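ENTRY TYPE: paired fold submission
RECORD: A
CONTENT: sequence, then structure tokens
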Amino acid sequence: MNNHEIDYELHGDDMQFVEVELDPEETVIAEAGGLMMMDEDIQMETIFGDGSDNSGDGLMGKLFGAGKRVLSGESLFMTTFTNTGRGKKHVSFASPYPGKIMAMDLSEMNGKIICQKEAFLAAAKGVSVGVEFQKKLGTGFFGGEGFIMQKVEGDGIAFVHAGGTIHKKELEPGQTLRVDTGCLVAMTGDVHYDVEFVGGIRTALFGGEGVFFATLRGPGSVWVQSLPFSRLASRVFAAAPQGEGEQKGEGSIANNLFHNFFGGDRR
């Protein structure tokens, strides 16, 4: 066992957080901004990369590993939380938006999972967080989360969060599942992944489902989310009042139409 063995408990339903129990000298790593609360004697430290030994030896190996994290949209740095006291201590991490947190035991998944960008929340120290490259370049340019996804490797516990409800699908050898690229949360390393174009220009322009979707071929496990954050954010932005109407509290359709057509406010 190369990773620290941590205990944990999930709290809540749709606004979850995970409480990690650390024995003396045990450490958990997390993305910046994920901390919710922690006991005394928990020491925080900002580190370069993910703190694992999988990025090579020396400075160049660490630079290469950190550079891959930048490509996946993450920071060069991560934060470690170590129990420096004598008894058991607790540190908690919360999801950045409504959804679920999954505890993924990498030792039961052949030591590797692939997840979308920003899905990783925290993990036992020793877990490596990098990027997974797809061979087809077009997947990266058009597939959203397709070309560059996070790769989480090791034999410890990793915590992944997603929006809405999470559903797990078990794919048989050769079985194919098509998923909206934003709804894909994670998959085991043996799942073949690609992005396909939705045929028909009318489907692309008026179908409302985008022009690309992910095709996943088994065997392996796939996790999908019902409410990607990008979809939630777009709905909130579209419903928000704009311009002068927002400042004056005039959010009605009639006021907006009057302002747009006649260039003034209704009196």
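RECORD: B
CONTENT: sequence, then structure tokens
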Amino acid sequence: MEMDLQNDTVVFFIVGFSDVPNGRLPLFLFFLLVYILTVLGNLILILLICFSSLLSSPMYFFLCNLSSLDIVYISVTSPKLMYIFLTNNGIMSFSQCIVQLFFFDAFWNTEYFLLTVMAYDRYVAICKPLHYTMIMNRRLCIIAAAGTWIGGMLGSLTPTVPTSMATYRPFNKVNHFFCDIKALETAAIGNASYIQNAILVHGFLCVTTSLICILVSYCYIITTILKIRSREGKYKAFSTCASHLSMVSMFYILLFDLYFRPKSTVSPMEGKVLTVVYVYIIPLLNPVVYSFRNREVKEACKKILRQ
């Protein structure tokens, strides 16, 4: 109870990009544009999938979930960051900071799990094409999608609970643009090794296991593609999973570079820039890489425009 009362008086000052001279207005416009484009791009994709009969396969069902996830994921940090740019007021209460951390990590976890489910979908489509509709039936897709969201929320408790139990000074300077767990670990008073341990446990349970499942799926996919005799057949099979593979690669490379590299080797500005790519650019690119270059999506768009 004493710790709870103490934390009720704790505030965090989010530094954001205040160390960039004369950058508030340009950065505000940049993040506002990225936010609007991300929301619009993913919203258009959701509407296309919902209203087009051409996009009724399980792959597009999971893409619809991914687009919904990208919208809420980027919305966890964007409004507060743009408010900081406009007012230069980066004050957040303890409860606001923990809530932001929880939802950021929850949607982040959901993305791992969703990418894993999408890898399994590509595995079934390429390795078991004759049984694809039977295996990836509607019931399984709904259960898998619901499981990714629920699992993401539950997985977020692993780092959030220890972080919320740490002791902080009444006023804490967070050298980041949101309540990032590594920044909060630095702000904690005394030995905060249990937060680092929670990050490692969370990384193993959510990140590593998801990555292993994706790698196993792609081992089977690549083995199957290599067995295809025609060059055209190999290209067609690989093209169905190339977008997913490219985004997974970018996602995990940035993740390990940010959170599993020693803190001493990452400068605060470098960490912010990498996080911007991770939090803002990937959700912006997802609808383009996954779908807008897809022939079926283009046909669905043309059909709806004609109607």
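NOTES ON RECORD B: The chain has one domain: 2-306. The longest strand covers residues 11-14.
STATUS: closed
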